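Hey team,

Filing this mostly as a record. A colleague (T.K.) asked me to run one chain through the structure pipeline before their review meeting, and I want the input and output archived in the tracker in case anyone asks later how it was produced. No errors, nothing strange. Just documentation.

Input sequence:
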Amino acid sequence: MRNIFSQFFQGRYGSYGMDKLTRFLLILSVIALIVSLCSPFGFLYYVAFALLIYSYFRLLSKNITKRYKENESFIKTEQKIRLFFGKKHNKILQYRHYHIYTCPQCKQKIRIPRGAGNIMVRCPKCMTEFKKKA
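Output structure:
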């Protein structure tokens, strides 16, 4: 029996294990299935079923190069999204403790600690001085 399975998976993309895109599709299909059970929207069941079929198609596909390229594009997109929200999260954390000003001449962003009062800010890039309230 084990030999039959190993022959079946030989040369298939799934023999290398689940990649990130397949794992994401499976998790998304399970979430859509759970939501479809709790909500009156019947189409979510079909969406979950389609995602499940596509993830198994990817898992059992013999076109390894195409599945690899799909996974790479998914990883790049995921990294862009994570970077975007990571920057937003970092900005929110910095706004608690710092004022962010831009230099009027070179548009360089300058971070000044809050509670410093009225100060003269010197741009580290162009050395322009301007007065701001921190």
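Quick notes for T.K.: The chain has a mean pLDDT of 87. Residues 15-60 form one domain.
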